[in-house]
Structure formats: structure tokens, C-alpha cells
């Protein structure tokens, strides 16, 4: 993912100054983060005033998946909202760094003022067995967002990403099948496994009510970003500030882009690693995969009460 940094807290300093620290509610006690200690040359300069406003909070909402679903686009679009502050890089706390503890995790977060929501995205959480219990232990009120995409194109997208890093890997077809002639699919291949959404969701539903999860259509995030962002803002209890006026369709990129990026006045599309050209996959292989996913997709539609239209 990209390493964009958090918002400059410039717009918010006055309310932070007046309101003071945000209360930390319904969470396990974590020692408070001490105010930022500015570099010596900044002390007593006007910049000092700006640099330390707000406090770091554990995230109230997390984009937990899915890998290649459109998670970066969703987070970049949400950051346009003045009441959303997000970590740029993927923290991977609940899968890779859990032993570092919640204080470490919170220290990664940007400073926020009262009423602002702290967010992060790490798409691998959705398929991490320990993640639901761990996030629930942080706060059972955490709102969870999952960007889902047709599992077949998701698998091809995943493969395309690996291929871009390691051009010598076997073909998509040969990785898909355990046995090409019987058409037996290798469900242990992560590119296939991740797309069995219903199975992964079952684990989350042991720890969270379905109403605390929002499922965003990766396809609609491309065809109607403002519509999906409307649902997300409602879910997060935010005023609908991000609307169709914020987007334009960039024909060269082939994707919706922001007219103005967060903290800038210039148009902004996602980088080259988002929207890669996929290799051509034989139709029979795609068909076999569609068949494979169909029952899991139908189960997923049933569980979420939402037909994503992949079948
Ligand atoms: N607006 C916009 N611009 C560019 N790309 C967009 C956009 N909206 C969604 N997408 C789709 O996002 C896919 C990458 O998903 P993620 O960001 O979740 O990938 S990752 O898991 O963080 O690597 C990426 O997948 P690929 O097309 O396979 O590269 C895109 O299809």
C-alpha cells in the first residue's frame, strides 16, 4: 500500500485548543500518549501550537478486507471527510504485530479531535483467524468495513500483483488446479481461499453482530463511488459530505479519481499499482472458478442480505 501520511491538523487546531483532549471511552485502559515533544527549534514557535493538537485514539472503525477489493480507494476517498483521520500505511497489528500491544498500535494513529473518527485498513484481517477476537477485545463496538469484489476477478487481481513482484511464478491456471483434468481446485492457494467470503465471515459473526459490519461492493465503488461512500458515511454516523461532486472519471486511468485529494487542491488518482492490467485467463478456467464460488457466494448474499451480482 502507499505510505501517505495523515492529515495536517491545521484546519482543526482551534477546536482542539478549545475542547481539549478527547475522552477514551469503552476501551481497556491504555496509558495516555504523552503530547508530542517538538524538535527544539519548534518549541515556542507558532508551529508548536499546530503540531501537538488532539490525541491519538484506537480506531473506532477498521477496513478489514478484502485484499484486492478496493480497500485503498475506499480509505483514500473517506479521508476527504473532515471527521475522518486515517493511518496511511497498513498497520498489520491484529495479524502480524499483536504482541507489540495496544499502546504501540495506538501510537501509530494520527491525532484526532473530539468527534473525529480514527481509521486504518489492513485487508488481511478478514482472513486472519485471530483477528475477530482480538479486535473485539480492543473494543466490541469497533465498526468493521469489508470491501468485497467478485472472487474470481479478485483472485486474478491477487495473482497479477504477485506476478508483478515475481514474474517467474507458474501460470494462473496451473496454480488454480490441483488436477487440471478432473478440474479439482486447489483451495489451499491463498488467491482462491480469500474469496470464500462466507467461510471467513462465519468467524467474524462469532464475535460481532452483522449490523456492526458494512459490506461495500468493490464493483460499485468503481461504477458509483459517491453512492457507496454515502452508505459508508451513514454507517459511520458521519454527515454525508463526500458526494458525486468529489469525483471525476479519469479516462486514461479507467477509474474514478478525486477532483481534490485530501489536503490538496489537485486532482488525484490512485497509483500505478491500483488498476493493473490482468493477464488473459482461459474462459473454461474462469467458468470452472465461477462454478466453484457460486454456492459460497449465494451463502454470502444470504448472510449479508445483499446480492452482489457476481452470479
Ligand atoms: N478509484 C480506483 N482507482 C484504482 N483502483 C481502484 C479504484 N477503485 C477500486 N479499485 C480497485 O482496487 C483494487 C486494489 O484493491 P486494494 O486497494 O484493496 O488492494 S490491496 O489489497 O491493498 O493490495 C484494484 O485492483 P486491480 O484492478 O486488480 O489492480 C482496482 O480494481
Describe this structure in words.
This protein has twelve helices and eleven strands. Helix 9 (197-205) runs parallel beside helix 12. The chain is globular. The protein starts with 12 loop residues before the first helix and ends in a 7-residue tail after the last helix. The strands form four sheets. Strands 3-5-2-6-9 form a five-stranded parallel β-sheet. Strands 1-4 form a two-stranded antiparallel ribbon. It is an alpha/beta fold. Helices cover 35% and strands 13% of the residues. The structure holds 3'-phosphate-adenosine-5'-phosphate sulfate. The site of 3'-phosphate-adenosine-5'-phosphate sulfate (PPS) has 19 residues, from helix 3, helix 6, helix 10 and strand 11.
Amino acid at each position: 500500500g502507499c505510505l501517505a501520511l495523515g492529515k495536517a491538523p491545521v484546519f482543526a487546531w482551534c477546536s482542539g485548543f478549545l475542547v481539549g483532549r478527547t475522552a477514551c471511552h469503552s476501551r481497556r485502559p491504555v496509558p495516555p500518549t504523552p503530547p508530542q515533544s517538538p524538535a527544539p527549534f519548534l518549541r515556542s514557535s507558532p508551529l508548536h501550537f499546530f503540531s501537538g493538537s488532539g490525541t491519538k485514539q484506537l480506531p473506532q472503525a477498521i477496513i478489514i478486507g478484502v485484499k484486492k477489493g478496493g480497500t485503498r480507494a475506499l480509505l483514500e476517498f473517506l479521508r476527504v471527510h473532515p471527521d475522518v483521520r486515517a493511518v496511511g500505511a497498513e498497520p498489520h497489528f491484529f495479524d502480524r504485530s499483536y504482541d507489540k500491544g495496544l499502546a504501540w498500535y495506538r501510537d501509530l494513529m494520527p491525532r484526532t479531535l473530539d468527534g473525529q473518527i480514527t481509521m486504518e485498513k489492513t485487508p488481511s484481517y478478514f482472513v486472519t483467524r485471530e483477528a475477530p477476537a482480538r479486535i473485539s477485545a480492543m473494543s466490541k463496538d469497533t465498526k468493521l468495513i469489508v470491501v468485497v469484489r467478485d472472487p474470481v476477478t479478485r483472485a486474478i487481481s491477487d495473482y497479477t500483483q504477485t506476478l508483478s513482484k515475481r514474474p517467474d511464478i507458474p501460470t494462473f491456471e496451473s496454480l488454480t488446479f490441483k488436477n487440471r483434468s478432473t478440474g479439482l481446485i486447489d483451495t489451499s492457494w491463498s488467491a482462491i481461499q480469500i474469496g470464500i467470503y462466507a467461510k471467513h465471515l462465519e468467524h467474524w459473526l462469532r464475535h460481532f453482530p452483522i449490523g456492526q459490519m458494512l459490506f461495500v461492493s468493490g464493483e460499485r465503488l468503481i461504477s458509483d463511488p459517491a453512492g457507496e461512500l454515502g452508505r459508508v458515511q451513514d454507517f459511520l454516523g458521519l454527515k454525508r459530505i463526500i458526494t458525486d461532486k468529489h469525483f471525476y472519471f479519469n479516462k486514461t486511468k479507467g477509474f474514478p479519481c478525486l477532483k481534490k485529494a485530501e489536503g490538496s487542491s489537485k486532482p488525484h488518482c490512485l497509483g500505478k499499482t491500483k488498476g493493473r492490467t490482468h493477464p488473459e485467463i482461459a474462459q473454461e478456467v474462469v467458468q470452472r472458478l465461477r462454478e466453484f464460488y457460486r454456492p459460497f457466494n449465494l451463502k454470502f448474499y444470504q448472510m449479508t442480505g445483499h446480492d452482489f451480482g457476481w452470479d
